[in-house]
Each structure stands twice: as structure tokens, then as C-alpha cells.
Design a protein that fits this description.
This protein is α+β, with helices and mostly antiparallel strands. It has a domain at 1-27. The chain contains two helices and two strands. It has helices at 23-48, 53-60, and strands at 2-6, 9-13. Strands 1-2 form a two-stranded antiparallel ribbon. Strand 1 (2-6) and strand 2 form a beta hairpin. The model has no long low-confidence stretch (mean pLDDT 82).
Length: 62
């Protein structure tokens, strides 16, 4: 799993070798990826003052 930034977006990605691709492995890995995404976005908002993307869109309209 990788954590990266692009402009104001946070990107969590997953690298898996094709020899390991099967439905059980992918399900397990994507569950882990989504759990980490939820964990990291909460940390960024609560501890570092980041804004949820839909909150940022509201400021663009002002």
C-alpha cells in the first residue's frame, strides 16, 4: 500500500503482482485499503486541520 499526495488530493494505492490476484486476496486487500483510508482521513482532519473535499467545494462557490 502506498500513501501519496497529488495537489490537494490524498491517494492510497495498492500494488499487487498478477500471480496473487484472486477474489479472496483482492477482497482482503481492498478491505484493508478502505480501513486505512478511513483512519488516515480522520487523522488529517482531526489532528492537522484538513478539510473534507465536499467542504472545500463549498468554499469554491463563495
Amino acid at each position: 500500500m502506498n500513501f501519496s499526495l497529488k495537489d490537494q488530493d490524498i491517494i492510497l494505492s495498492l500494488l499487487i503482482y498478477d500471480q496473487y490476484i484472486n477474489s479472496n486476496t483482492l477482497l482482503k486487500l481492498f478491505k484493508q485499503l478502505l480501513a486505512k483510508a478511513d483512519e488516515y482521513d480522520n487523522i488529517l482532519v482531526e489532528q492537522y486541520g484538513a478539510k473534507w473535499k465536499n467542504q472545500l467545494d463549498q468554499f469554491d462557490k463563495i
